[in-house]
């Protein structure tokens, strides 16, 4: 079996032919471990999700990378060792952050995991992460290898890291690693700590950054660590004898009263403790306490007599390392704070985004009388500036993951894994630009390099809210774009599937500027009643907190099924925007829905609110959240006049997901051969074609535990044909990813490019977010290293 745990020099010499069968070594003086010297352009310490996504992103940009990971698997808290789901700005689809799943490599990983692993098996997720890394020839991966020392070069110009030393316990080898740039994504900041970079640990006082949510001493200054477990029904009674170290009683655990046997352990994230200890140096102490709690909890569930449904359950798995939330945070060129998150501060150097709530936990964890977590949600996603990812002290050091430059309060949001990975991808491309141009990480803040970085991020699928960018090298932007059809939304067909109006329900719709069309609904009415309907929007076109009331009406309804009710709100939009048609709860009414799935359309419901709490800086919000498929269906609507929601020209507007509009070409539902055409006045030389497909950026795609209703997203193009001046360039089948790169065998001389969508992955009309065309055959920033071979070739 080929060893895929190492790449490059670290894997040589294991099975050379003719090697002697017996080695006899006479006694000698003290020996030293075998030493291997490795060099790279970028050394990454820490192979959690952030470090993994950074390594892949950098490698694809042409950077030679060494990834040092002290565990046997990649993924950190998302790995099978800990088993926490990957999540970020989508926030389980439980707030108003629509179309908020992170882009780039982390999106590629989550989409692939959903496709292969819809049941959320953490072992399968391990294999996907490892596969993505070992497929990149520019990555040398060192598993089970802990960094132990740092070498610094100090001069009047500043301090630089010249190398690191790492040790692998599995092969008794010490690695001496040299690189030009370094990224610390190690969770505890091991590299930055040994380098002497400034850091913080604990919570800032409210007065330092005017953060009203800063915790009190009673609440505690650090978040703790969690231990997860799995259970399994084996079909016959199972006896459990607790180990002697199990917690003998749960009297000290206030939340013990809410234990159930149907959560499979890993949903019990609040089995947490350690926030009053040193969460770096006392991690082993914390682990032992959490083991005591877990086995005590299981003893209680099995042997207290209160849970007869636990009789056939066995304890299948218990984590061996805790999931760590917080330790050190390092000081960068800027420190993100509460105001940046809640007020969605705009930054010229924005390179990523977050959207998880500010989520703080009591330091005493499971032993606290306080709620397990307190969430403060912003009204939407917020920007993360590049300055938070660059050390202010070490000239060639980047930060990624939970150690980035943020206050304790802001960290409560930025710490989650998909957000961490999104920032890490930005670091990876910044490193590639630095290496190509001989820049320091801080130099990227100059206008030219920053504009290039943001453009390169756009090319890799990374979304930066409020940053509309046009790629200067994209030949498609100069084309005339037409299509065989464009969806004129005149009706969302009724599938004879009414849902009760037992909660406030809504439909999210992208509408152009101008008069709002008349809206028709099909209703079942049990008794004479009044239906209250509203038209709402947010404060911006891409703001999905619908607290701006545009119009409202009351409709008198008589009993009867399948009634067509027309609503004319007599309202106008001053700009394109997403609006919410809101139908307020009425237990006598059922509203008809549709099985048709359309890019950019989302059915909503309103169940909970966030009350305003001025004393902690918490805005009051109504949460209008999606209904997950298969239950989530669009409302059956009639729009008069019809509205074009997916014009063909959208594919060259530089935005690859819905914002204030769908930003997609969407074909008519009845178009049997939906085709998009790009025409140029003069022939173009095209070496690479990039397509961006709709993989439902509103879907959270939790990596483990959650099950997903579909393996491939129904909106995503599955089969397509590309022709150049009528000649077939390539036919694609069984596609399911957000990004599709086509590299023809020969550069195309073409005046017209046509893309015909032959099928999608489900009940959805053909749609594409973007078509980009480049003269260069690959998307690398550097030119001195091989690129990934994972592209489609014609």
From TrEMBL:
InterPro entries linked to this entry: FAD/NAD-bd_sf, HdrA-like
GO molecular function: 4 iron, 4 sulfur cluster binding; metal ion binding; oxidoreductase activity
Protein name: FAD-dependent oxidoreductase
Pfam families: FAD_oxidored
Higher taxonomy: Bacteria, Bacillati, Actinomycetota, Actinomycetes, Propionibacteriales
Organism from which the protein derives: Microlunatus elymi
Record-linked Gene3D superfamilies: FAD/NAD(P)-binding domain (3.50.50.60)
Location of region: Disordered: 1-21
Keyword annotations from UniProtKB, A to Z: 4Fe-4S, Iron, Iron-sulfur, Metal-binding, Oxidoreductase
